[in-house]
Each structure stands twice: as C-alpha cells, then as structure tokens.
Design a protein that fits this description.
The complex is a heterotrimer.
Chain A (H helix, E strand, L loop, with lengths): L9 H31 L2 E2 L7 E2 L3 H8 L1 H32 L6 H9 L6 H11 L6 H8 L13 H26 L3 H9 L4 H29 L3 H7 L11 H11 L3 H29 L4
Antiparallel strand pairs in A: 1-2
Chain B lengths: L1 H23 L3 E7 L2 H18 L2 E7 L1 H13 L6 E5 H9 L7 H5 L2 H5 L3 H5 L2 E2 L2 E2 L2 E7 L1 E5 H6 L11 H10 L2 E2 L5 E6 L10 H7 L19 H11 L7 H6 L10 E6 L4 H6 L4 E4 L10 E10 L6 H12 L1 H9 L4 E2 L2 H4 L2 H4 L7 H6 L4 E3 L6 H12 L9 H18 L2
Parallel strand pairs in B: 1-2, 1-3, 9-10, 12-14
Antiparallel strand pairs in B: 3-12, 4-5, 6-12, 6-13, 7-10, 7-11, 8-9
Helix pairs in contact in B: 14-15, 19-20
Chain C lengths: L4 H39 L19 H5 L7 H32 L5 H13 L2 H14 L7 H5 L6 H12 L4 H8 L4 H12 L1 H17 L2 H6 L9 H11 L4 H35 L1
Helix pairs in contact in C: 1-13, 3-7, 3-10, 3-12, 4-7, 8-9, 10-13, 12-13
Classes of the chains: A mainly alpha, B alpha/beta, C mainly alpha.
Chain lengths: 295, 416, 284
C-alpha cells in the first residue's frame, strides 16, 4: 500500500506516540550519538576529570600512530579474507543443500546451528581445538604424521582467528542463500537445459544473477561485521602469543576507551572507523547498480 | 570536688568517644581488590575481623586482574567509586594524574605512628609532591621457586645461593623431560615473558642493564642483548622454556600445573602453589655478570575522590596497616607485610607453613624498584605484546627485542 | 520421456552426483558439528585425562558438571540474565520497530520521508560510534553497572527492524485500515488487531535476529557489567571463567556446554520458524 491515509482526529496523536520511541532512538542511536562522538573526538577525556578541548590533536595523533594504523590494516586484511571466505562457503553449502536430497533438513540444521551460538562459546571451544598439546586439530594432524602446530602463534593466529570467525558466520549466509536459491523458478533451469546449457553455464547465467540481491545483502552484512570484529579477537587473542598481530580496530577502541579510559582518543578512532565503513558502503552501493539484478 | 568533676569529665569523654565510634557503626564501605579465589578468602577474613572490631561493614569485592581496572572505571563512571581500592605501584601515577584519588595526608597527620613503621622502599612509591595519595599494604620481591620433587627425581641438587644464570640453564635442561615419542612432558623453567616484573626486569638488571631512562622517555631494557639471547636459546635451543601456546593451554602458570620445575615469581603465588599440592621451595634469584638483582613492587590502598564514607574508608586502611591487620595478613601467607615489625617478627619468619619468608625480605638488599611512571600500562602492554614474537623460531632475539622496544617507545611518546 | 541409454546414463550421473553430494555433506557435518561433539566429549573427561589421546572419555564422569554449582555457581544466574536481556530486547524491537514502520507506511504526514531517512541512516552508522556517547548518557543516569542499558535501547526502534517491517507493511493492502477507520476503530486498534498479526513472518525474522544478537553480544555487557558475576550476561561470564580457570579445559567445556544448551533447545523446538525467519531478513 502506498501511504494513503491522512491522520484524522486522534490519529494524529497516535502517529506521534507511535513514533516517539524511534525519535528517541534516532537522537540516541544514530544522529545524536554520531554528533557526540564527533564532539568527543576533539577532546581529551579520562572519565574522571572534565574533558578539555584539543582540536585536531587526536586525529593527527591517530593517523601517525602506528598502533592504530596497524589495527586498521589488520581489520582490512581480515575483512578481505573473511568476506569472500564466508560467501563462498555459505553459497557452496546452500548449493549443496538445494538438491533436495533426503535428510537435507538435518544437514541444514547442523550447518546453521553454529551461527546461532555466541562467539564467546565458539571461541572458547576453538581455543581448546587450537591447543598445542591436546587440541583436536593437532591431534587430527598427528594422525597423518604432521607435527603439532602452534596455532595461536604470531604466524598463524590471523588464520586461526579468521577460520573460527568464518565457522561461526557461515550458517546465516547459507540460510539466506538457500531461500534465494529456492525462490528461483525451476522454469528457467528447464528452459536452459532444453537449450543445451551445461550446469556451469546455468549457474553463472541464471542462478547468480537471480540470487544477486541476496549475495549483495550478505556481502554488506559480512563486511560490516568484519570491520567491527571484536568478540573472537577478545576471546582468542588477548594475552596470546600473537596478540599484537591481531589487534583489530574495535579492539583498540575498546582498549583505549574502556581499559585506559582515553575516551577522546577512542572516539576519534571510532569516527575514523565509521568513515572506513561509509566508504565501503558507498562503493558497494555503486557496485549494486552495476551487478545486482532486481526483477 | 575534683574527683567528681574529673569523673564527670571522664563520663563525658567516654560518651563522646562512644558516639564517635557509634557514628560509624552500621556504615558500609566498599573495598576492591584484584586476585584469585584464594586471595579473596584472605580479604574476607580480614574484613570480618575489622567488622567485629569497628562495626563497619566491609563489602569486599575481588575481580581478576584482567577486568579489575575496567571494573574500577565503571564504578567511577557510575559515580559510585569504592571507598578503598587496591593499587599496583607502577599504575599509581596514572591514577593520581587523573585526579581520581583522595589525598591521605590529612588522615596520616592524625595517625602519625601508622606510617613510621613501614618499609621506606614500599612507602616511597606512593608519595607525590602533593603528599601521600596511597599507602602500601604489602610488597613483593621476586625469587626463584622450584619443585623439590622434580629435582629429587632428576637427582639434581637444589638451587644454591651461588647459582648463576648458566647454572639455572644447565639445570633446566636436565629437568626438561620427554616421553618415548619425543614429546616434552616436563619443562625446566617457565617464566612469564609479558610483564617485566616476574622475570625480565631482574634478568636485565643482573646483566647491568636498565629498564627505562630516568626521564621515562626512552626504553633501555633492550640495550644489552645477552640476557635476551639467553632466553631465546632456552626457548629454541634447549627447549626448556615452553612457548606461550603451551603455557596458555596449561592455564598460564605451568609451575602450578605441575609441568615446570622452576619459575621466577613473587610471593603472591604462595597460596596458589600450596593449594595445588606442589612440593615447592624458594631460592634467591641467580646471579648475572653484574651481580644479583630482583624486582620489588608493592601493592597499596588508595581512596577514591568522591566516595561516600572516606572516614570509614580510612579506618580500613589504618586497620590493614596496623600491627594487628598486618599480622593477620602475614599469617595468611599472602605477601610480605609492609610493616617492618611484623615482617621481621618470629611469627612471620618461622611461620607454620614453613615458607622461607626471610628469603623474600633479604631480597630487598639487592632489589630494584619496579618502574613507576605515567603511562606505565600502555608502555608495558606495547612491550609485552611485541615481545611475544620471541617464541617464533624464525625470528632472532635481537630483532624481536628491537621491535618490542620500538613499540614501547612509541607508547611512551603517546602518553602525555 | 526418453527411454534407453541416455536416461540410464542420466540416472547414473544423478546417482553419482547424489553420492558426491552426500560425501561433501558429511564432510560439512564433521566441520560444523565436530567442534560441538568435541566440546561435549571433553566435558565428560576427568581433569587428569583432558589431554589424553583418546577421543572418548575414559572414564566418563560428571564431576565437571557438579563443579558448575560451586566454582561456576553464577553461571546459572548469567544464563538467566542473558535470557532476560534478550527477551526484553526482542520485545522492545518488535514493538518499537513495528509501530514506527506501520505509521510510516500507512499514514501521510509532514516530515515522513525525512524521518524515515534519518532512521535508515542508522544502518550506515556502526555500533562503536554509539558506544561511548551511550556510555556517557547511562553513567549520568546512574545505570552503568546494571542490565538496563543492554535492553532499553531496543525499545527505541532500530534502522534494520523498521526498514524490514516497513517493506513488509507496504506490501499489505491498505483498504483494511480505511474500512476499520470508517467503522470507528482507533489507530492502535487497527494496528494491533489487523496489521500486526499479518506481519508474523517478518516479526518472526526480526525476533530471531534480535534475540540471537542480544544473546551473543559481548561488547556492551563487557562495558556495563565487566565483572559483576551476579548481574552480567553469559558471554561476559564465560570470558571471566576463561581467565579464571585457564587451563582447566574439561571444566571450561562443561561451562561452554551449558551456555550452548538453551539455544540448542530453542532451536530444536522452533527450528522451522527460526530458519524461515532468518531467510526472510535476507530476501527483503
């Protein structure tokens, strides 16, 4: 329906009442918070004594601070690996499940369940799986004669954390893709088969374009999640061997803001991170026009 | 006449005193400490004693070191800061500079005897140019702990006073055992290589090095390479120091887990190691080329600026620092009491648990103070995080230490 | 229908394809269910055996679970806290987002487009930008150290929920509202009795998303309740146990099992709804 009703009488009051929570939300959540964060980013504040203005000092310091730059680069590296990995795995799993074989429901539930559980629980289990001596991974490798690997070591911690993260995120994408795949009318496939198109051709010419809205949606979700990665790093990488190599942007913001109570600097970093996210979004929406096919 | 008026005067004085004491009765204060369950028990017992004596209820809260400081910050943010909270000396200046602490001089003036009997080394950490903003409650020196059963099994003599680092290295090698498949089941030495206090600072000092410049602008801990090469060799050549991954697997303290024969750490581990059933004993830190060195650090109590019951809070502090409080603390074998008379008493030195407390006190003779400066937390985090690369066999000791020192220097530059 | 060789070949190819699919599915099962089974197995081992070579517990013991009532006695409280916060958050989002979405899709009023745009802007704004300002606000209100900040913001609408529900409401017929109004029904009546029930699928999707998001959240509980074991949520509690009982893997795995169990039970009961709901969020 198009908005067609003009509020009459008591309607007007109700419209306002129904909107008040969201109005507050915009003030506190979106617009208001952004404004306060930006304001704070120009101050130096330690949560005990009143804040004092320092202008652009925080920004200049952050952009020169190698710790911050490293955190941003780690976050970007993580995103570049995490998003494609999640997409490919989720899509593959969805394709696999789309064949309508008996027992499909069971597999679908099993693949989806990990994404429902908390990152904290998953990370706890993975830290046990990655354990050098008794961990599941090294034990499995030991069966084929490979010596134990220090998974949480500085060389491998990036991959260890990423894999754990992907593992916990594949399920939700898979479900979205599955629904999208099942929404593709089988007419198209039959027509293509009659025309002699092979399965690969069918995939690229029919499937992908028709599920591209779902793919786009998931890319956005996965990207935003990746750029804000925190839980897995907190659970797996703090005080670990490779801790310095796995500090992501949000982890740094958390540490600066709530460990060392440098609220001004943390706000600056949050604003800068938000800028990075906005840039990604702009790029994505440009790409959407070109690549996503809406019926 | 005289007798009656003096009796009345006495009665008046008594009622006044009673009302003073009664004025605090029923009050509650919050005291925060970091520590393990064993340490929490210690404080609860003390709080019970204090409560019985003064009628002030103490709400003792303990949190793991990891989240302790966040918890304090949250309480400040909620405007309900605790009356008293435990302070680690190196971090004291950070908190002082945030204008978050209550000056203690006014209370100390009324209670002169309290401060005089404390170890001056411990006291010095809490003095600022505006007076005392904290007081030490105990101090820690670092010594070498060893597992007697493991030494017996390897038929090795126990660590001696005359030990040098080479002696330790040799013993650690012999105490690193493998099973039939070649996998290491027991390590010789498992020091903490993140915070400088348990091991690294003592090591560097014993080689004649220093930790940080006097103006706290330059990190000096990496200037001498020998001590770091020793550590690197023990990790990668001897394999007698386990890597971080293994340490995490066993809960970050392999000595307590019964998997390592030696560790250098402070008195705070005594209750834990006893609880874990380890047959342990202590020895002084081995000598380096420049002599013997160890680290001394103190934990103290500070009061939050806008707390509700500062008077009652001060009563707690003076109780903990009194002869009675310090004696009780000492009997729980938790740390070396900050009060000299208690630390040097028979009860402490010949305690029923047979801990060689004299060794911890004697260590003061060759102890250096753990560095205290604004920005310590950020500096030590930067250093520790980057030093973790020392466990990587493809990196050289020189390279790792240089990177860690550079990161630490950058952190120094960042703190104003 | 074709008969003869081509059909047989096709069936063979199809059977091989199915076989390969099953193998891959089985591999996937090992990957996705393996960690949970491993977690379960370890939780039944005695501490001395946690590093043992065998996969299965030898002997099988419940001692880690017994210990939950002593060493981790706050774990149950934390499960309750997580439930409380998640349910409140879900109710909050469902109410506030649907109310706003309904009004935005059905009624014409000045500033409608602007408000919707402002709400949508929240989609682009990442969570950490709101973290510190909200913390400041809540500390001024004296709510830091309580559970309130964790769910109360859910009652203030949300970009994603409002967007999702507005799309859904827009696809519903508007005549019903007109007719009801002619009959004298008030706006809330129209909303609660007619349109809200029609939006069940989208509401279910939003509910799932909100519930799991809140249940799994670590950042905000960590900031508002970093170490109060009685009040904090399961996520923070687990992270505290991870630090406190480091190295005691069989016990930690028992804790992890307890934290996963509630979600597993809900999932087993409401599987279909949950999966459908999650799918919807992607399709719109």
């Amino acid at each position: 329906m198009e908005a067609r009703l003009k509020p009459r009488g008591s309607d007007r009051l109700w419209v306002l009442l129904f909107l008040i929570p969201s109005l507050f939300g915009v003030a506190l959540g979106g617009v208001g918070s952004s404004a306060v964060s930006i304001l704070l980013s120009f101050t130096d504040w330690n949560n005990v004594s009143p804040p004092h203005w320092v202008g652009l000092a925080n920004y200049i310091a952050s952009l020169k601070d190698s710790q911050f730059l490293e955190a941003v680069s780690t976050t970007l590296r993580f995103t570049i690996v995490y998003v494609p990995l999640c997409l490919v795995t989720a899509l593959s799993a969805a394709l696999l499940l789309n064949r309508r074989l008996p027992g499909q429901g069971f597999f679908r539930a099993a693949f989806f369940f990990p994404s429902l559980t908390s990152a904290v629980a998953v990370a706890l289990v993975f830290s046990w799986i990655y354990a050098k001596d008794g961990g599941l991974l090294n034990r499995a490798l030991g069966l084929v004669g490979i010596p134990p690997i220090t998974w949480m070591g500085s060389k491998t911690i990036f991959w260890a954390v990423t894999i754990a993260n992907v593992w916990g995120a594949v399920g939700e994408g898979m479900i979205v893709f599955l629904a999208a795949l099942q929404a593709v009318p089988s007419l198209y496939y039959e027509a293509a088969r009659i025309d002699g198109a092979g399965s690969l051709r069918r995939f690229f010419k029919i499937t992908l374009p028709l599920i591209s809205p779902a793919i786009f949606f998931q890319i956005v979700i996965y990207t935003v999640n990746a750029l804000q990665a925190f839980e897995y790093i907190y659970m797996l990488a703090r005080r670990q061997q490779g801790a310095s190599e796995m500090t992501t942007a949000v982890y740094l913001i958390y540490r600066n803001g709530f460990r060392w109570f440098n609220m001004g600097l943390a706000s600056t970093e949050a604003v800068l991170l938000a800028l990075v996210i906005v840039i990604f979004m702009v790029l994505y929406f440009r790409a959407e026009k070109r690549f996503v096919y809406y019926e | 006449m005289k007798l009656r008026s003096s009796l009345i005067g006495l009665a008046l004085a008594l009622t006044l005193l009673a009302s003073c004491a009664g004025g605090d009765r029923g009050k509650t204060i919050t005291v925060l400490n970091w520590g393990s369950e064993a340490e929490a028990k210690v404080w609860s017992e003390l709080a019970a004693d204090f409560g019985a004596k003064t009628g002030i209820k103490v709400n003792i809260e303990t949190a793991e070191w990891d989240v302790y400081w966040e918890k304090i910050n949250t309480l400040y943010a909620a405007n309900t800061p605790p009356e008293v909270f435990a302070m680690d000396a190196p971090l004291f200046l950070d908190w002082y500079s945030r204008d978050a602490l209550l000056p203690l001089d006014p209370y100390i003036k009324k209670d002169q005897g309290l401060v005089n009997g404390l170890f001056p080394e411990a006291l010095a950490a809490y003095k600022t140019d505006k007076g005392y903003f904290g007081l030490p409650r105990d101090f820690q020196t670092i010594v070498l702990f060893y597992n007697k059963a493991m030494f017996d099994q390897a038929k090795l003599p126990y660590p001696k006073d005359s030990w040098t680092w080479d002696d330790l290295r040799a013993a650690a090698k012999k105490l690193t055992l493998r099973d039939s498949a070649g996998k290491i089941t027991q390590w010789g030495f498992s020091p903490d290589l993140w915070d400088i206090e348990p091991f690294m600072s003592s090591l560097v000092w014993s080689y004649g090095g220093d930790i940080i410049s006097a103006d706290h602008k330059k990190t000096l801990i990496g200037d001498k390479l020998e001590p770091w090469q020793l550590v690197w060799d023990m990790i990668h050549v001897d394999k007698s120091i386990p890597d971080q991954d293994t340490q995490t697997q066993y809960g970050n303290d392999m000595f307590r887990a019964g998997k390592a024969a030696m560790i250098s750490i402070g008195h705070w581990s005594v209750p834990e190691y006893t609880d874990a059933g380890i047959d342990w004993a202590v020895a002084p830190m081995p000598k380096g080329p420049a002599g013997r060195a160890t680290s001394v650090n103190s934990a103290g109590f500070v009061m939050a600026k806008n707390c509700k019951n500062p008077e009652a809070g001060w009563k707690w502090i003076s109780f903990v620092l009194s002869e009675e409080g310090q004696t009780k603390l000492a009997s729980l074998n938790f740390a070396v009491p900050a009060r000299k008379s208690v630390a040097q008493s028979q009860a402490f030195l010949e305690n029923p648990a047979k801990v060689d407390n004299k060794l911890f006190i004697d260590a003061l003779a060759y102890a250096h103070l753990k560095p205290i400066f604004v920005g310590y937390d950020a500096w030590s985090t930067a250093f520790g995080d980057n030093l973790a690369a020392i466990y990587d066999p493809t990196k050289t000791a020189a390279g790792v230490v240089k990177a860690a020192v550079d990161a630490a220097d950058r952190a120094l530059a960042g703190s104003k | 229908m074709n008969k003869g060789n081509p059909s047989r070949r096709a069936r063979l190819a199809s059977a091989l394809g199915s076989g390969a699919t099953y193998i891959l599915l089985l591999l996937g099962l090992i990957v996705f269910a393996g960690p949970f089974l491993w977690m379960l197995a370890t939780s039944f081992k005695i501490p001395a055996e946690q590093f043992s070579k065998s996969l299965l517990p030898h002997p099988f013991t419940l001692v880690n679970y017994e210990r939950l009532f002593t060493s981790a006695r706050f774990l149950w409280l934390q499960v309750f806290n997580s439930f409380q916060v998640s349910i409140l958050s879900t109710i909050g989002q469902i109410l506030s987002c649907s109310m706003a979405a309904f009004v935005l899709s059905l009624y014409r009023f000045r500033g409608r487009a602007l408000l919707f745009a402002l709400i949508l802007a929240g989609l682009v704004i990442p969570a950490q930008v709101t973290l510190i300002p909200n913390f400041i606000l809540f500390s001024k209100l004296g709510l830091v150290g309580t559970k309130v900040p964790l769910w109360i913001t859910s009652f203030l609408g949300g970009a994603f929920g409002t967007f999702l529900l507005r799309q859904y409401f827009s696809a519903l017929p508007g005549e019903l509202a007109e007719a009801a109004r002619v009959d004298g029904a008030s706006l809330p009546r129209i909303f609660f009795t007619i349109y809200l029930p029609m939006a069940k699928p989208a509401l279910a999707g939003l509910a799932i998303l909100t519930f799991t998001g809140s249940w799994n959240e670590l950042t905000r509980p960590l900031i508002y309740l970093p170490s109060n074991q009685r009040l904090t949520t399961l996520t923070v509690g687990l992270s505290l146990y991870q630090a406190q009982y480091a190295g005691q893997w069989s016990f930690l795995m028992a804790c992890a099992v307890v934290s996963v169990l509630p979600i597993l039970l809900i999932f087993l009961v409401a599987q279909r709804r949950i999966i459908e709901g999650s799918a919807i969020t992607g399709l719109k």
